[in-house]
Specification:
globular; 29 strands; Luciferase, domain 3; Rossmann fold; GMP Synthetase, Chain A, domain 3; alpha/beta; nine-stranded mixed β-sheet; 3 domains
């Protein structure tokens, strides 16, 4: 079985039922959220404010037409086809059309610069590119630098001269299944690592891994045909797509919301009758802050269908979930841990029945195994910190064209996650920190997540990132970059005084009031902060020396 079989089944069983809804909200001058109804026009510009929807039959037909187009152009099995698009209703039909043609889908981060686009196209050996209007300027800059790319399709109107407009072209191709059988053992997709430690690595996965993600997601969250999933994170990332797979396997509706403001999220839940919402930590914080400050009145919304809120992609502060449950006591809560190398969320899973263990990432997910090991691949004792290793059907095939990194990360079938963790006597796993983020100060290991969770308990704090700064005497010192809630006036001294509740060696030596940058998947961009503030300390030291 391959992932496209689920789409074809839904097209047979639920041909006229809604598969996808896209909502692009705007705000009028009175800050009221609005979106107008619009028909599904093939050439509609994806940035226009509208609500569009697509049924399962149309979804499958579009994917088939794209597959037949690619095959008519002589595309071979295993050809890499990249997708560079913002979240929109066209995204998933493009993805599935690529897979139906026996090609390898290569979703790309919409924040990539032109140089990163060029680099990733080259790294993944991409021959065909599908991109949206938001990327025209960046693609103009790399023309002549991507010789392997031989076809470029444009999703929109009035594309550059070197492209073909995709949707008007598709009407000339058969909407029936392409004359091609794909096996579950074949390669299906290349996803890119987040690139937080340099240029991204290309992560290769099979159809079998994609299918297991569907089954696992439904096992974990019990999606039914009547559930409606609100999808907000970027579809280029494994997290959003693999959680949507729970809707795919049961033929449920999904709503793609192009925006993250709290009022937009709550109105989408209200009007589309959403029952499952996957949030990133910053979005959940913004919703809670808005409610607690009075900026959001819950009486303006109808949220009775909302049954599950789950979070992933980064460590989740227990204080956040405790706040959430006070306001939404009827919500089930879950957290899923994963990484692109494990095909996204779920290799470790808390489970809605384990709310008492908030703070843990859970136990091995459906079909997965876990270990916590030392540098010699020996299991550490219960309660001790080691590196989390996982094994299961979603482990990547390899880092494409990077055998050294593959050997370093895959050891006897175990995927070394690079995350430091510990396990309690019930088998629940707690993240301690990224291996590369551990701060060694005066010979002591400091785990930033522990310090961050403590500082988040300070009422004035919206977000915090603890990083290591170079220090001549101690090697490194811990610095806390603290972002305050809107309207708060706490000082560095106030935060420092709050931190006196920590053991002395864990207290940050430096407090910095600033915004905390996060990437589109919600992860704190610590390399950026380390580079920024280590450079500032170097300037400070040089200035003092000159004086």
């Amino acid at each position: 079985m391959v992932i496209t079989d689920f789409l074809e089944r839904n097209a047979r069983l639920y041909p006229r039922e809604t598969a996808l809804v896209e909502i692009s909200p705007t705000e009028d001058r009175d800050h009221a959220v609005t979106w107008r109804e619009a028909s599904l026009i093939e050439s509609a510009h994806p940035d226009a404010p509208y609500r569009r929807e697509m049924n399962w039959k149309s979804f499958d037909n579009r994917a088939n037409r794209l597959a037949n187009l690619l095959l008519s152009r002589g595309v071979k099995r295993g050809t890499k086809v990249a997708i560079l698009m913002m979240n929109c209703i066209e995204y998933l039909p493009v993805y599935f059309g690529i897979l139906k043609a026996g090609c390898i889908a290569v979703p790309m981060n919409y924040r990539y610069s032109s140089e990163e686009i060029r680099y990733c196209l080259d790294l993944a050996d991409v021959e065909i590119l599908v991109f949206g209007p938001e990327f025209t300027e960046r693609m103009d800059e790399v023309q002549g630098q991507i010789p392997r790319v031989r076809m470029q399709f444009y999703v929109g109107c009035g594309g550059p001269s070197y492209t073909e407009e995709l949707w008007p072209l598709l009407v000339y191709y058969n909407a029936g299944p392409p004359p091609l059988e794909v096996d579950e053992s074949e390669n299906a997709a290349i996803y890119f690592s987040s690139g937080t430690t340099g240029f991204p690595k290309a992560i290769l996965h099979t159809h079998r891994a994609l299918v297991h993600s569907c089954v696992m997601e439904q096992k974990h969250h019990g999606q039914t045909h009547g559930d409606v999933f609100l999808c907000i994170p970027p579809l280029y990332h494994t997290g959003a797509k693999m959680h949507w797979f729970g809707s795919l396997i049961c033929g449920g509706k999904a709503v793609i919301l192009r925006g993250t403001k709290p009022k937009w999220i709550l109105r989408a839940v209200t009007e589309e009758k959403c029952s499952i919402v996957w949030l990133l930590v910053p979005w959940a914080q913004d919703i809670l802050d808005g409610i607690e400050s009075g900026a959001i009145n819950l009486n303006d919304y109808y949220l009775d269908r909302w049954r599950l809120m789950h979070i992933g992609a980064q460590p989740v502060p227990p204080s956040l979930i405790n706040r959430w449950k006070k306001i939404f006591p009827h919500h089930e809560y879950d957290t899923n841990y994963g990484l692109s190398e494990s095909l996204g969320p779920g290799c470790v899973h808390l489970g809605v029945e384990n709310i008492r263990k908030v703070g843990a990432i859970g136990k091995a997910g459906y079909g997965w195994e876990t270990r916590i090991v030392n540098d010699r691949m020996e299991d550490v004792a219960i309660g001790c910190v080691g590196e989390l290793a996982v094994k299961g059907p979603g482990v990547m095939v390899e880092y494409y064209k990077n055998p050294d990194a593959t050997r370093e990360t895959l050891k006897d079938g175990w995927l070394m996650t690079g995350d430091m963790a510990r396990q309690d006597d019930e088998g629940f796993i707690y993240l301690v920190d990224r291996k590369k983020d551990v701060i060694i100060t005066g010979g002591e290991n400091l785990y930033p997540v522990e310090i961050e969770n403590y500082i988040r308990r300070f009422d004035a704090v919206k977000d915090v990132a603890v990083i290591g700064l170079a220090d001549k005497r101690l090697g490194e010192i811990a610095a806390a970059v603290v972002e305050l809630k809107d309207g708060e006036t706490a000082t560095e001294e106030d935060v420092r005084a709050f931190c006196e509740g920590l053991p002395r060696y864990k207290r940050p030596r430096k407090i910095i009031l600033d915004t905390v940058p996060r990437n589109p998947t919600g992860k704190i961009e610590k390399p950026l902060l380390r580079q920024r503030y280590n450079s500032e300390r170097l300037v400070e030291r040089e200035t003092m020396r000159l004086e």
